[in-house]
Design brief:
Layout (H helix, E strand, L loop, with lengths): L1 E4 L13 H9 L3 E5 L10 H7 L2 E3 L1 H7 L2 E3 L6 H6 L5 E4 L7 H9 L3 E4 L14 H20 L7 E3 L2 E3 L3 E5 L3 H12 L3 E5 L6 H6 L3 E2 L20 H15 L4 E4 L14 H6 L5 E4 L16 E4 L2 E5 L8 H16 L16 H6 E4 L2 E2 L2 H9 L1
The structure holds nicotinamide-adenine-dinucleotide.
Nicotinamide-adenine-dinucleotide (NAD) binds next to helix 6 and helix 7.
């Protein structure tokens, strides 16, 4: 197989494979072409890729020669124009939300895999980029809040008096929320966590967080461990509980998501208006609409002396470890589409390969994406 590693466009700083992982792929008889300075912003120079056994080439050469095209971010229009139907595109393009890209792949007969669609099964855990990147995001969000906050995270007993610990509220206790809980606890804050899935309560408590209870949530066993839309009555009770906690909080970290849907709105403008001046809201759900009514994606705004940070891509400001984790996940996935002789082998009988494939030969493969593109 000839794999082409593309340089990310725009502000992305990560790279889909670091040289250490390129070497492991070459050991599996894969030829790797790397676009000039692909790893530059992740502190991986071209020379390190060459040392690992890859060839450094121009972008167009990758589109001419590679069988598999790999990057992290969705393709831009220029890239889509250059992909041919006999090539395989692999990146993370959020097909449940970005249905336009799916339509472009379909109309051009492109075989595409979206790594954010890897099934959340035990076997696929080592390929789960969502978990890896959520780990980075949860950690970094807390550090950013700590730096911007006008008060300390931990309690201090000093000669100048006692400083009380900060109150942190975390909305959503998935991978990012739990990592944020652990990080904020390590920094000494009081951490309150809310999620509609009662199953996470034990995990929150084991990390030293306090669980904000709201009874009557709808949970769907068929949703594969994910949250589902809630009733109006529950939403009203939830709003009351979150509001009460928000007013006492110095930091709110929003991580609540529902796959394929707009992120649930949990913090209204009215609530922000009543929060303590100097408080910080970090909204990791910003690119899916945000959990806070005032969030603007990729922007830092100030409203009534509350700072609201709409940031969904903290991994891009932690490029080295984020690339390392992403690359290991990709490597484990690529092994599934490689034969022992190092040839490309798309085995659609494999549940992970089938579930991650979004389009192939003019058809939508992934069942959940299929129902969305039909409805649009
Ligand atoms: P996610 O990013 O989809 O959502 C983040 C959190 O937001 C979830 O915990 C969700 O319950 C919560 N949420 C949604 N709506 C909410 C609302 N209205 N109010 C409050 N919270 C709300 O979640 P994720 O981190 O990707 O994890 C989702 C599930 O997948 C979890 O059960 C996790 O254990 C599971 N998982 C499985 C694997 C695996 O087996 N490979 C790997 C990672 C995660």
């Amino acid at each position: 197989m000839i794999l082409g590693l593309l340089k990310e466009q725009g502000t992305e700083t990560r790279v889909a494979l670091l040289p250490e992982t390129v070497k492991s792929l070459i050991d599996l008889k894969t030829e790797v072409l790397v676009e000039v300075s692909a790893g530059e912003n992740a502190f991986a120079p071209d020379s390190a890729y060459v040392e690992a056994g890859a060839k450094i080439v121009q972008r167009d050469t990758i589109f001419e020669k590679a069988e598999v095209l790999l990057q992290i971010q969705p393709p831009d229009n220029d890239s889509i124009d250059k992909i041919s139907p006999d090539q395989v595109w692999i990146s993370a393009f959020n097909p449940l939300w970005e249905t336009e890209i799916v339509k472009q792949f379909l109309s051009k007969n492109i075989t595409s895999f979206s790594l954010d669609s890897i099934p959340r099964t035990t076997k696929a855990q080592s390929m789960d980029i969502l978990s890896s990147m959520a780990t980075v995001a949860g950690y970094k969000a807390v550090l950013e809040a700590g730096l911007r906050l006008p008060v300390f995270f931990p309690m201090f007993m000093t000669a100048a008096g006692t400083v009380r610990p900060a109150n942190v509220l975390i909305l959503g206790a998935g991978v990012a929320g739990l990592q944020a809980t652990a990080t904020a606890r390590r920094l000494g804050a009081q951490v309150y966590v809310f999620d509609v899935r009662s199953a996470v309560k034990e995990e929150v408590l084991s990390l030293g967080g306090k669980f904000v209870e709201v009874e009557g949530a709808v949970e769907d066993k068929e949703a594969g461990g994910y949250a589902v839309e809630q009733t109006q009555e529950y939403k009203a009770r939830q709003k009351e509980a979150i509001d009460a906690q928000a007013l006492k909080s110095d930091v709110i970290i929003c991580t609540a998501l529902i796959p394929g849907k707009k992120a649930p709105l949990l913090i209204s403008k009215e609530t922000v208006n009543k929060m303590k001046p100097g408080s910080i809201i970090i909204d990791l759900a910003a690119s899916s609409g945000g959990n806070c009514e005032l969030t603007e994606d990729n922007k830092v705004i100030t409203h009534n002396k509350i700072t609201i940070i709409g940031q969904s891509n903290y991994p891009a400001i932690t490029p080295l470890d984020a690339s390392r984790m992403f690359g290991k996940n990709v490597f484990n996935f690529l092994k599934l589409i490689l034969s022992e002789e190092g040839e490309l082998n798309l085995n659609f009988n494999d549940e992970i390969v089938k579930g991650t494939c979004i389009t192939h030969r003019g058809e939508v493969f992934n069942e959940r994406v299929k129902s969305l593109t039909k409805n649009n």
